[in-house]
Write a structure and sequence with these properties.
Number of strands: 0
Number of helices: 4
Low-confidence stretches: none
Largest sheet: none
Strand content: under 5%
Structural class: mainly alpha
Mean pLDDT: 76
Radius of gyration: 13 Å
Shape: globular
């Protein structure tokens, strides 16, 4: 809700951060068994943005909040594109990922 296809969510829409937080709560229940499937309508733009923001904010193995990720957003996009070549193809999503990662958990 509030995230148009081929666009970015509005800054005052907190649903995205709530989704990332809930995703991480589920991961922390049993990190070894957490095998999520993430997909939007096309499976590239919003999906890639979500995956990158989640990876940048939380360690995927432990669910602990990262102090800083060792990868940069462009490097993660490049890695994702090896698996699906149009992931996060819009440059306007990159500043939004940084914004989302800097939000405090509620």
């Amino acid at each position: 809700k509030g995230w148009p296809d081929h666009g970015v969510p509005s800054v005052n829409n907190n649903n995205f951060n709530k989704l990332i937080e809930r995703f991480n709560e589920l991961r922390k229940l049993d990190p070894s068994k957490f095998k999520p499937i993430v997909h939007c309508s096309a499976g590239v733009g919003r999906t890639g943005t979500f995956i990158i923001a989640d990876y940048m904010k939380y360690d995927p193995k432990t669910g602990n909040e990262r102090k800083n990720a060792s990868d940069t957003i462009p490097a993660l996009i490049a890695r994702l594109r090896l698996q699906r070549n149009k992931h996060s193809s819009k440059r306007d999503r990159q500043p939004w990922i940084v914004y989302a990662c800097n939000q405090k958990d509620t």
